[in-house]
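2 proteins. here.
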Amino acid sequence: MLTYLKALSLFALVFGLAFLSHKAIVPNVVPIADGEQSNWQVQLAFVLVSLENIGLGGAALVFVALALDRLQGMRRDKNAR
């Protein structure tokens, strides 16, 4: 259980730092370039939103792994009886 909490806190930290950085540095920039060359704000927003998505995806995977581990433990306990 401690491993899941460590992994969840790591992904939450990645998401939180990227989200706060995005809102603080480039608050009104959407990471979609409409011209031939994008400026540094669009590129930075793209990187920060990508990090946010990595954090959210990782947290979702940790929750799925935890749920599967709990279900397998319940199944193991049921078969042990």
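next one coming up
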Amino acid sequence: MVAPENLYSVKASILFVATQKTVQEIRASDSPMKWAAWFLLFYPLAAPFYAYTRRNWSVLLNTLASIFAISILWEVLKIFIKTVWSYDIDSNSLLDLLFTLMVWVAIAIVGHKSILAVVTSARSDLAKDVVRNPASLPENSSIPPQFTRSQRSVSMALSSFSRLLRSKKRLSYGLGALLVVVIGAYALYTSTVESTIKSNPVLAAVSATGTTVRIKHFNCGNLYGYYDSASNTMEICTAVHDNQLFSSKESTIRHEAWHLVQACSAVKSKDDEWGEFVEVNTPLLNGKTLNDEELNYISENYDQQSQSIEKEAFLAEFNLTDGQIISAIEEKCYFPA
């Protein structure tokens, strides 16, 4: 027996349970467009709220995966542009704004599509429940307890569409995961290669002078590397070295570092006008010579004015140690403040 004073609360509880919507019904009544707008405006709050109240984490995972994929692609794009065109995207505020817009657009689009899939699946499941058990339909439901032939056709079509959507979804997840792994692996590889090359002690000494050091992976042609005195920039290309069995990045680094020593020898301070190269005439190279093949290579690939500079750089590359080149950099390029 229920005490009279508790009868009202019991009736209220029964009424609440009877009128409360199931999670499936809540999902089916959602508007993908409205939720996409909420995601666009308040994603950090709206996405977890949707996942918790709808008992569905796929929408949150899909949007987070899209953000992660765009971030990885953006990092790869920055590396590609920096290596091919030597342009640093990080210094451009408009491109940073473009990246932010891409992220929010992806959140809105992926959120809309994911919620639409959840809504479609929920409505299909509710329709199948009605077919199996018409008596379970609430009295105030707008869906009739008995289906006509056309309504059954619509229900079957929705069910087929839902299965097709889920299969395509699994395929897209697999391809997306594969793409993220490949891009992530490539980004990790290039960053590892760059950090390894830049850890070369000669390049570390070059960087310590204030020279910009870049590692280039594409669009090098036959150029192993170069030092530009006017911009005080040194580039080392990985692609050409990787295609040559007996080539050495360390050898190229010594060659280009010696060009830096030649540029430093042409001026007396950092305030002077840079752009010229002069021979260092170090005693360390006295008596050192190049063979006929190397001399022919220089005469065929460099103009007459540059040949003496290149001869000395090749001699330094072939005959000096890393320590001797570092000492020359410290002697010629560390100007007094």
